[in-house]
């Protein structure tokens, strides 16, 4: 995957970090046999996806492929 910028954006890093924290919370509560804590962690996982999506819509994510092709064509001209 050399030369790929996939996932190297603030939106991606923030969403994945929040989701990972939620995964850790859920895992800890599974070991403690506390279902409410597990589901709270799962809510944090979903929140990570929502935050990442909102940040992408704010322009902090990767540009759509269509725009990348246009930029590449302009740079060659």
Descriptive account of the structure:
- With 77 residues, this protein is mainly alpha-helical.
- Helix content is 78%, strand content 0%.
- The chain has one domain.
- The chain contains 3 helices and no strands.
- This is HGxxPAAW family protein.
- Pfam families: DUF6704.
Oligomerization category of the chains in this entry: single chain
Number of domains: 1
Query: Could you give a short account of the major beta sheet?
Result: none
SSE class: mainly alpha
Task: Please provide the ordered H/E string of secondary-structure elements.
Answer: HHH
Helical segment count: 3
The mean pLDDT is: 85
CA distance, first residue to last residue: 27 Å
Question: What proportion strand?
Answer: under 5%
Helical amount: over 70%
Determine Rg (CA atoms, Å).
Answer: 17 Å
Report the strand count.
0
Low-confidence stretches: none
Shape category: rod-shaped
Pfam families: DUF6704 (PF20447)
Protein name: HGxxPAAW family protein
InterPro entries: DUF6704
Organism: Streptomyces hesseae
List the helices and strands and how they pair.
Layout: H1 10-31, H2 35-60, H3 65-76
Short description:
By secondary structure, the chain is mostly helical. 78% of the residues lie in helices and 0% in strands. It has one domain (10-76).
Keywords, please?
single chain; 77 residues; mainly alpha; 0% strand
């Amino acid at each position: 995957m050399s030369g790929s910028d996939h996932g190297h954006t603030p939106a991606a890093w923030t969403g994945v970090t929040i989701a990972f924290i939620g995964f850790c919370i859920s895992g800890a509560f599974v070991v403690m046999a506390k279902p409410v804590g597990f589901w709270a962690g799962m809510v944090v996982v979903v929140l990570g996806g929502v935050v990442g999506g909102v940040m992408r819509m704010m322009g902090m994510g990767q540009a759509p492929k269509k725009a990348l092709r246009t930029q590449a064509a302009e740079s060659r001209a």
